Amino acid sequence: MMDSDRSTTKVAPFEAARSLHKPPDAARHEWAALVEAVACRQDRDCFLRIYDHFSPRVRRYLLGLGGNAGLAEELAQEALLRVWQRAGQYDAERSSLSTWLFRIARNLYIDRVRKEPVWSQTQEYLEEMDLDGPADAGERPGTESLSEEANIHRAIAQLPAVQARLIRMSYFEAKSHQAIASELAMPLGTVKSHLRRAFLTLQNELRCER
Amino acid sequence: MRTMNPRHHLGEATLLSYAAGALPTALAVVAAAHLSVCSACRRQLRLAERIGGGLVDMQRGELPAQQAREAILARLDEPPAPAGASMFPPTTVADDPDALPLPLQPYFGLSLRTLRWRWLAPGVHCIRARVSEGNLLMLRIAPGKSMPVHGHNGSELTQILRGAYDDQLGHFAAGDMADLDDGIEHQPVTAAGVACICVAGLDATLRFDGWFARALQPLFGL
Question: Which fold, B102-220?
Fold first, then answer.
């Protein structure tokens, strides 16, 4: 309890600093430093700062996928527990903490609902292939530049309404192209072309800071 | 796994849905087979996953319930759950030219040499794998064979594993991905020399006329 209370009081200034006084790069470095503290020292205060920020966000993401509050809560806890247990595997050069957590939560969800445990193992295998790739950071598929988080937030917010809707239906409801086409009475080809345009727009934002 | 330089790749909409976890399983397995030999598509996949990270980050924040915080603190001393038994066969010979891409191995086995083909039509053999969503098929089509013109009622992903074919969209060889949807009608003609072996994932039925539709009936329940 003492640890929890102490951490709660620390969260507020950290959040304020993140949103008001520091550029996104600084926030990105701070998250990475917190994960490193978890990995190196099993620092519970640092873990709770990560937990307090991300567990509600991961839970909301999972809630959209399944619509089941109990499952979303259970898998969000599991995802954050993975951060504690696998902090040493996190590579801040390769992805932001939110992207890492997105992958963890998505994989947990797919394994659970599809009951095909090869999904997670396949993703881990593909990630390992990237690690074995060229040493030049610019060529590594996983390398993520530091300024991207702010850019992607802005770019998502600025997408045309229909593209934003299809992006949300894909990522937050895990709806296939066919399911989106049926629900919106939209030709399959139109669904794909909207998603393609949205991806190209967001890609440009992600790449322009390289 | 061997590195390839495919010339035909996963479409952006397909990559995005793969990253979102929204591709039906049969299509996701075939997409993963391509990703395992294509670093360009893996780069794209990482970008698509960053969109997911951005969306998670943009969710409204609130302090978690005290009960949930206490529950997670109580679990921090747990030993990590043991990794589940691997669905992948334990021995994969990396340099075996007949080895199947690893993402296909849980569904079809280790090697092209050990596949148990079923005769489907003259010059066409097939294996259907069991998946939770969609249809997942391995096809072997004799060299120099012209397939019937067909369209698609939904999406189809086809990854070429061996041999090659040509159609209205171009030349497709080992490592290439044909990412098709209902706007495309095509007539693949396999290259001379070796049989074309490919793996296809579909989320709906194909549209064939005539003899091939009849041949496929037991596979798809057309």
Answer: Jelly Rolls (2.60.120)
